[in-house]
Structures are given as C-alpha cells and as structure tokens.
Request: fold
Amino acid sequence: MTGPALAEAARLLAAATRPVVFTGAGMSAESGVPTFRDARTGLWERYDPRELATPAAFRADPALVWGWYEGRRHGVRRAVPNPGHRAVAAIQARLPETVVITQNVDDLHERAGATAPVRLHGSLFAPRCSACDHPATPPDDGP
Ligand SMILES: [Zn+2]
Reply:
C-alpha cells in the first residue's frame, strides 16, 4: 500500500475508536514463517499440507501428522515478530478495544505484545486430544 491509499488508511485509523485488524499468512511470512502452501519443504515436500491438516489425516497416520505439526512449531519458535506484528500491538496499546483476528496459527502477535487475538484456525501451541478435546501441552523443543 502506498501513496493515497496509505494516507487514507492512516486517516481512517486515526479516527477509529474500535478498529478490527485482520491478518493472514502474509503477516508471518515477513518473519520467515512459511505460508501454508509453501510449507512443503524438506521431509514434507512430498505431502500436501491440505491433506495433512485434517482430522482424517491424523486418524490415518497420527505420527506423520504430529511430526508435521512439530516441525511447524519448531519453525515458529525460531521466528521473531516483525514490524507488522509490532504495529498491530501498538494500535492495540493505543486503542484497547482493538480486535485482532488472525488466520495464523503462530504466536507472533502475542510475542509482539498484542493481547487475545481471535484465532480462526486455532494455535500450533494449543493442541487438544482428538478423542476428548482435552487441552495438551506441546513438547518443548529446548533452547
Ligand atoms: Zn483425550
């Protein structure tokens, strides 16, 4: 976004009292988190993420799907929030009624200082039992 569109966005934001910020994969891609379609690297290049990220795939091969999620968690733990994440947190700090809605499953908004993002697709860091929905703690992959 540049020129008049950016100026208009700034004008609207300056006048806002309850903005809603909606983010997706592009936000975290700037921090090096691969987008869902680009997540086919290394071990996973022969799998389709759309087929791995389903309850049916987990039932068919839990170790495969859990391993794929572990790899994604590991990558996100190494990523750091970027200026976009920090800008969202700054908006929320200035306007506490800001609602942050994200399609992202990483924790970069929180690590930048945003509070309580609404997660449309859940969190890599909040796995639940597939049988009873009980929350679980993902393994820590160390320092
Ligand atoms: Zn259970």
User: Anything to note?
Assistant: Residues 62-78 form the longest helix (17 residues). The chain has a mean pLDDT of 89.
